[in-house]
Amino acid sequence: MARGETIQLTTASLFLWITELRFDAISLNSMDATSDRDFVAEFLFWASLCVTHLSKMAEDLIIYSTKEFAFVTLSDAYSTGSSLMPQKKNPDSLELIRSKAGRLFGRCSGFLMTLKGLPSTYNKDLQEDKEAMFDSYDTVCAVLQVTTGIISTLKVNRTAMEAALSTDMLATDLAYYLVRKGMPFREAHGASGKAVHLAETKGIPLNQLTLEDLKTISLLFESDVSLVWNYTNSVEQYTAPGGTAESSVRAQIQYIRDWLKPRRS
What we know:
mainly alpha; two-stranded antiparallel sheet; two-stranded antiparallel ribbon
């Protein structure tokens, strides 16, 4: 059983140990010091959560790289050909990133299961922390390296993305138009829904409804409603922090760069 240190140490010697070993402070309890593996559990959880976000991103890119979407194209360096279909391009790198999330979940949950049944102070079971932590560290480093390569070589197919746009996406913007004209949003939401239904009944896109059609829904519609049918305007109207406007997105990117700068040095 751990009982602490019987040899009386001076404050200066303790400070020297802490400084040379780069510890923040000494442990307040010797029994806890020999059995505590909270730092390992926290690292394993962080690693799991980090790869969770990367796995979600990988899933998005896998879907967007399919022929059905074709929004992005992966570099040949991060994809492989099919053993059967010559035309197929497999996003192997993204699929492996996604699979590593499960590996790290297992490391984290497995080690927590080891900890939960241990009595106080040191037990040999705690040697399992090394394998879990070192493997998780190596896995996260590899995943981050591959992710960096994928993103830096990724090609965005703007034409395909623009072709996938639908005026139905602007139905909320139509409601906002009425709100700016003085209509409560609850009523504007209903009016926009009626416009969508009218377009579907006529078998035409939402933006092809005439001003006369829209006036049958609300007299607040005027000729300037044509400005609503613009995807760029729709994106750029969200200028609040965290919004989709280009200025807001650039501010978000700059924030992350500023946050990373002192941490890279």
